[in-house]
# Entry
Amino acid sequence: VQPIAAEVQQLLDEVEAGKSLMQALAEWPVRTQNRDLDLLVATIKVQLEVGGNLADKLQLLAQIMEKRQLG
# Structure
């Protein structure tokens, strides 16, 4: 199992065990100490709170992450 798959599975397990999605999402980047994951979670939380097109937001986030990695 790849690391991200294991992390997503842990997130799903926490939600299935009764933790709210928002709480599980909030704890995810803290647990992994991953800055990119922090941005992903923030994007998902905004979409859940205000709606809109998640695909568009994720595409923009991917572009931001790619630019940041390239320097």
